[in-house]
Amino acid sequence: MYTLVIVDDEPNILEGVSRLLDWKALGFERIKTAKSCFEVISHVVDWKPDVCLVDVKIGNEYGYELINCLNGIGIKSNYIMMSGYDDFKYACEALRCGAQDYLLKPIEREQLQSRIEKIIVEKLHGTLQKEEKKNGDPILDREYEKMSPLIRKIVMIVGMEYGQHISLKSIADRFRMNATYLGQIFIKETDMKFSEYLMAYRMYVARQKILNTDEKISAIAADVGYSNMNYFYQHFHNYYNITPSEMRAKNRE
User: Fold this and answer.
1) CATH number of 2-122
2) pTM of the prediction?
3) H or E stretch including 246?
4) How far, in Å, CA of 119 to CA of 99, rounded?
């Protein structure tokens, strides 16, 4: 029924946001992603987006400039700006060009769900399906809203950046916290070490790709943060007790 366009120059952000909500349940039959403003402008007439999630900085260009350009050529959509910059001037520019909202990264599921539902009802004049089961973290098997704000932010960061070189220390540095202390908090709430959670999440995403795509195993390994194939195969086999190739072959039988 609806078309969603996500614009960000980071592939992991594109994939993370595209999996953050159950878009199909919300009525979005088409999800398009773009890594540049040029790509959006080239396809936007065919895509006819109902909602656009736009990063505030796309390469050397700004998201609000893209929105102004689309407004200028008569593209009517509902824009939500995403940003890693907690800067008032960016929020002002986003709202000035007609954006519905301004969300800080890592995007929290509840915030995004609320904004999208509001747009569906108020702007697209649609209806919402009653959610039978609340969305939760696939590794911890826990609803996001039942996590503490700190742990929820950490798992959201992993959900968007699992393919990059991330560590407990790099996340602790973002929060200006001691890594050891942050690790203790994570273990206390999740009963898992952060390194165990990160590996489990990478294995989960790898499994989804192996079962649902035709991507090469080597490409999948790289996508989920492994530069060493032997290391990936070892972790995958230890986690699922089956090799990636065997899992794919068995699924196709």
Assistant:
1) 3.40.50.2300
2) 0.58
3) helix 244-252
4) 11
